[in-house]
Amino acid sequence: MTAPLVPALTAAGFAPARGFPPNQVIPATIVAVLLTLGVVYGAVRYRQGRFAALDRVGAAVERHSGLPAWAALPSLVTSLSLLTAVFGFYWDVAWHIDKGRDNGPFSTPAHYPIIIGLLGIAIAGVMAVVLDKDDHPSGIKLRQGWRVSVGGALLLLCGLIALAGFPLDDVWHTLFGQDVTLWGPTHIQMIGGASLATLATWMLEEEGARRHPELLAAAHRRRGPTSLLTRGSTIIAAGSFLVGLSTLQGEFDFGVPQFRAIYHPILIMLAAGIGLVCARVRGGRGAALGAALFFIFLRGLLTLVIVGLGRSTLHFPLYLAEAVLVELAAVVVSTRRQVLFGAVSGFAIGTIGLAAEWGWSHVWMPLPWKSAMWPEGAVLGFIAALAGGVLGGLAGRALLPVDAPRQRSPRLVVPLAWAGTLAVIAIAMPMSSHSNYKATVTLTDASPAPHRTVNATVKLDPPEAGDNATWFNLTSWQGGTGTYNGQIVGQWVVPMKPVAGSPGVYRSTTPVPVYGKWKTLLRLGTVGSLQAVPIYMPADPAIPAKGVKALPSFTRSFVADKKVLQREAVGGPVNLERAAYALLGLIALIWIASVAFGLRRLDQLPRRNSGSWTRGLFGRPHAPRRRSVPA
Fold it and tell me: Mean pLDDT, the chain, as a whole number?
């Protein structure tokens, strides 16, 4: 598509299918350069001692938070930025599910909170590095006389990589077309950076508390809302970490996943194992439950807000059963033995917790977990929970105060946990499609044109094609909004029900739209394959793509699911695409290595073996265990 055609297509109501035109990109680039120069200028002035206003703000935050300014101010900025970004993120996903492509980076309101949030995380990282004048020996040396906290350095890395993903996203779309998926390379870059910023902030706060325990003690002695917030900061940090670990589940939360169904239990088990075990080890009694409740509160609030904005419903896992199991595991195994406790908790999460989430999916999730996912989904979910529990125990151990007891890691446990995590992700990745499957579809009008809706009867060839489906439904999306039973709906996910006595014949129970810009397709997913049949697709000259008419009766072959869901992804140089994914893999390895290095660095600091440490739901000090003295 040539550049002169873009304005004409946009004026005709067709959003660009590749990158955005220069008249939108150039102003954004200029603003980004000016902001970068402003941040660099302010950082230089501060290090030269000529930015007293920042010192005054830092001192005020320090008094109320119980943390030094170099930890308190970046933590505050990051918290506000993450809250802004996660709202924008879920709003943006719902926006694209309901309305399709946008006309530019600033034409969709949901993009603004994302940009502001990512920019705020990057600025918080700069603050953490620039404000840190302690030159503490445990810090990371930048140059002589300037050492910075591990958490601050990791926060800066996460913020810069995530922020860089926004302009790179436009480059990717220019080369390969729009990829309407959460798991595109640049999308993962942005999501991953923001998600890991939760852990980086937690590490930063712990380092601040370690270096200046007198500030935290003073804050705990004060009364009022600020003191209560300070005492509950561990629960907030753990809950935020759990929210961050759950972001890549987004496509399943909205009912339009483009990857195998077994990823859903894998992702939930990993998040539960890592997040809840880490919370319980660091936060003490009730912390796992508190983190799960914070997660439910925040995600529930986001769901209400997004639905209130007229967008599709955001679903989420419950994590309550897993949290209770982690709390019960602490009764059996002491959290002083962090690795063993993590393994026991992971075992409970991967069995009873997995069963609970399986049941919850039939209550709340748009795509309930089917029996076809057994046993592969259960086995991989169990391994993910077990590995996640061990990694969560190690992360919680690193975040403990310096005077807390620690269990030494048994040999090979850490590499086995990492190997298990990477293995389940890799095993679930390959997927195929059955182009030899066919569907004979009969459509029955439920409402006439111009807002035509239909019910569908489908006969599969071969008849057993849908016997072991993880999902088999009619999906309608990206058409704006419609009304059904008096409710505004932005997306339909309608299960196909088998017709008794007719093998291979299925019928929908809810009408779906086949008019305007709606895209309606028949989706069939199995444990190892994803395929779809277009029912109705509007013509789209911006791609360009021909329309698919919703005829009263027709027979069509299944094609790869991605080919229908992402018909804007028109391809590009194969070697360049592989290089982009290789670069994403390198960034992921850098993140993993950085997090592992940072946590290990925190775990190896010199310790005061006093036997008591500050922990618990509201930061209460735990006394050392009394030992019996021989008479």
Answer: 87
